[in-house]
Backbone:
């Protein structure tokens, strides 16, 4: 008999993170130095990251132990529940079983704290005193502010200007936890000043905010940079989501048929779905679906190429599906999904055909969110609602399948977006092909 809510005791918090690099059927193309175009060496990353995280970034070990201190802090909210959405199923009149892994129960409201704690821990251990980062929706910035607070570190956050205006209370949350927040582009960095001079009205983008945070870290000795997505070590830390989900499905007596996650940079999707990659390799009919906004369609309309992770070209070149580092997406409400690229791991798996990608429109996403809220009660983040939309569509198109999606965060600070949707004021954007083609002209030439 299937259970509707599967919880786990503290002793079932994983003891090690899972590194999907060990199980990739083909190796990941290496990151390249932005100046020389040669594969990156650990010392190239040392100005902005602590050595322990650089080692994790490059490690091929399948299992990497979770430090006791981090595991203890995970107990604040982990293990998170796996919930069967029985009322949603009933409303959809589906005979599919729909489960969601509820990562919204963390203090900051999303999965982002899984890696924020780990990153703050390793930085503290190596004597860093201040961290910088960027944030789109504010979920990552608030997680990093809280993690920094727990480890007694300063935290400077460059928040994408369009979200800074849309989400004043996410900013308050970061400030409650001691974070210093600037709207990006800001006048605090060369990168920000240059972009503001060219376009004073720019809504900003994650690519721009990353440039500012990297520059701030690289120009201060006591400071390092933290990234909330994209990188291998971030997906590694997020693997606690998928590892717990596997155990919970086992307890529920279920084998998943369709796994779904939304993709900004790829960290909740990767952390949730990739611990199932060994299963996918054995069972090709297991579908793993990454969902992105039609306004920022990197996986569905981008090209697989080496590109910069940021607008000012400060980061290494990584091979990913990209819309070009100069791409500035429309100010849609899923701020955390407005990124021009994707995690190299996620891109590589898409290229190999091991995961699928879907792009969805903003209003359809909010309709899915309302249906979910009105049946299951929880009000999802706009980012998370992309996964919900795809889960509802999958339930409509399939019979008797077990569908599991990652409920990456709550939407309690996203009421402006819900208000606009309810008032019928939300616009649907599909990013035009010409603009994508134009942005792709600026891709770096790689030897
Ligand atoms: C709730 C939520 N889900 C998903 C994302 C997308 O990020 P990622 O693809 O790294 O999981 C964000 C990013 O801010 C987020 O806040």
Residues:
């Amino acid at each position: 008999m299937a259970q509707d809510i599967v919880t786990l005791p503290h002793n079932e918090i994983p003891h090690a993170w899972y590194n999907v690099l060990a199980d990739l059927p083909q190796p990941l193309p290496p990151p390249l130095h932005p100046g020389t175009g040669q594969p990156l060496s650990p010392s190239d990353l040392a100005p902005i990251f602590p050595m322990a995280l650089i080692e994790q970034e490059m490690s091929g070990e399948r299992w990497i132990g979770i430090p006791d201190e981090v595991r203890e802090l995970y107990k604040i909210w982990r293990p998170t529940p796996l919930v069967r959405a029985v009322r949603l199923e009933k409303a959809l009149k589906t005979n599919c079983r729909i489960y969601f892994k509820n990562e919204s129960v963390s203090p900051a409201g999303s999965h982002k704290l899984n890696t924020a704690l780990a990153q703050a821990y390793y930085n503290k251990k190596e004597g860093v005193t201040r961290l910088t980062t960027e944030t789109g929706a504010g979920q990552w910035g608030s997680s990093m502010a809280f993690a920094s607070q727990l480890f007694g570190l300063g935290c400077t956050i460059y928040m994408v200007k369009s979200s800074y205006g849309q989400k004043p209370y996410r900013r308050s949350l970061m400030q409650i936890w001691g974070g210093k927040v600037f709207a990006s582009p800001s006048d605090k960095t060369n990168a920000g000043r240059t972009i503001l001079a060219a376009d004073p009205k720019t809504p900003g983008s994650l690519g721009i905010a990353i440039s500012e945070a990297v520059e701030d870290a690289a120009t201060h000795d006591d400071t390092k940079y933290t990234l909330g997505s994209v990188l291998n070590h971030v997906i590694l830390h997020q693997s606690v989501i998928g590892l717990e989900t596997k155990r919970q499905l086992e307890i529920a007596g279920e084998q998943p048929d369709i796994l779904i996650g939304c993709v900004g940079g790829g960290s909740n999707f990767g952390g949730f779905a990739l611990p199932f990659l060994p299963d996918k390799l054995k069972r090709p009919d297991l579908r793993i679906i990454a969902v992105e906004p039609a306004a920022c369609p990197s996986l569905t309309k981008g090209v697989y190429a080496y590109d910069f992770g940021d607008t000012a070209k400060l980061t290494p070149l990584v091979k990913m599906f990209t819309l070009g580092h100069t791409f500035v997406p429309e100010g849609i409400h899923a701020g955390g999904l407005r990124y021009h690229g994707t995690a190299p791991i996620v891109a590589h798996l898409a290229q190999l055909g091991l995961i699928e990608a879907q792009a969805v429109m903003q209003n359809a996403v909010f309709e899915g969110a309302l249906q979910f809220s009105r049946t299951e009660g929880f009000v999802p983040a706009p980012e998370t609602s992309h996964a919900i939309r795809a889960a509802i569509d999958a339930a409509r198109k399939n019979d008797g399948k077990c569908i599991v999606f990652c409920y990456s965060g709550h939407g309690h600070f996203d009421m402006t977006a819900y208000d606009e949707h309810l008032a019928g004021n939300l616009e649907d954007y599909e990013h035009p092909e010409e603009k994508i083609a134009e942005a792709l002209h600026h891709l770096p030439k790689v030897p």
Q: What stands out?
A: The mean pLDDT is 95. The domain at 18-39+47-64+111-225 is CATH 3.40.50.1100 (Rossmann fold). The first strand starts at residue 5 and ends at 6.
